Amino acid sequence: MSDCIIRTIDLTKIYKIKRFLKTEKVIGLDRLNLDIRQGSIFGFLGPNGAGKTTTIKILLGLLQPTAGEVYILGKDPRDIATKARIGFLPEMTYYENYLKIDEILKYYAGLFQMDPKLTRERIDTVLDLVGLTVFRKKFLHEYSKGMLQRLGLAQALLNDPELLILDEPTSGLDPIAQMEIREIILNLAKEGKTIFLSSHLLSEVELICSHIGILKNGKLVKWGTMNDLLKINKFFEIHLIPSDNFIDRIKEFDISQIPNEETLIISTESEEVKNNIIKIAAETDSKIIGIYPRKDSLEIMFKKLMLENNNAYSD
């Protein structure tokens, strides 16, 4: 379909590594299937060595898959015209520190063969967007890590791309700067741009991403919309002031209990257990303060997935 920006079909990458005169096969990606639509912010998650970097390199046409298919904007990712429609922010940016911002961005504009007038306009636009206009006369060696990260984002936006691939875009930024970058990303998605975002900052991903995919050992183990995935693991919290009899009566239930001064917080995923707790509270003159439906955070869901059948990760 025309609005499919990234599509992979059984994408597989197998590395051959020589160890002690023997060649071993290591699976970097195991039949990865992605279907990322226009305007979405896709969070790509996984522990170190899960295959995220391998995926990004294949999407950028820097690495050939062993098997499977990959399409970026409907084309082969190695297609030069397609590359001109992509913006990329790597996790680690490297610039010559004796240069100034304008010199760096003019160099990248030259790679895109941009018209000089358009280059000047785009540099002004992206520097204003990432908050670096007032620093444009400084040399890069005077920049903090956070400022260099902003420069990396400006570089990724210079060619006004349809697809942005961002690897740890808020790395090194203070909380205020993280919020500002978050707003930029959200606004770019509203403009119709598609963002593929790889990050270890799960709280940031939860705030901005519309869809997520989680890799483990090269396999996509969870994917879908953020709302749908976090609704799966819903539970109830019951806040109450218990009587002594109440504590004895609830020992038979498989629940989580957290003492909080005079208050007890009980967590359960079972509607039936919740109703039994309410009934026992009434029978023992325990005072219920509140009953709150909850859902797992992305961080909790991620941790549970990583602990399931935990094996060594392959890269």
Topology:
Elements: E1 4-19, E2 22-37, E3 41-45, H1 52-59, E4 67-72, H2 80-83, E5 86-89, H3 101-111, H4 116-130, H5 145-157, E6 163-167, H6 175-190, E7 194-198, H7 202-208, E8 211-216, E9 219-225, H8 226-232, E10 234-241, H9 244-249, E11 256-260, E12 263-268, H10 271-283, E13 287-295, H11 298-307
Parallel strand pairs: 3-7, 3-8, 5-6, 6-7
Antiparallel strand pairs: 1-2, 1-4, 8-9, 10-12, 10-13, 11-12
Low-confidence stretches: 311-315
Number of domain modules:
2
Widest sheet: strand order? 5-6-7-3-8-9
Per DSSP E runs of 2 or more residues, the count of β-strands stands at 13
The CATH topology of the largest domain corresponds to Rossmann fold
Mean pLDDT: 88
> Helix share of residues?
25-40%
| SSE pattern | EEEHEHEHHHEHEHEEHEHEEHEH
Q: State the secondary-structure class.
A: alpha/beta
Radius of gyration: 25 Å
- Measured by DSSP, the beta-strand proportion falls in 25-35%
Shape: globular
CATH class of the largest domain: Alpha Beta
CATH architecture annotation of the largest domain:
3-Layer(aba) Sandwich
Number of helices, where a helix is a run of at least 4 consecutive DSSP H or I residues: 11
Q: How would a crystallographer describe the biggest sheet?
A: 6 strands, mixed
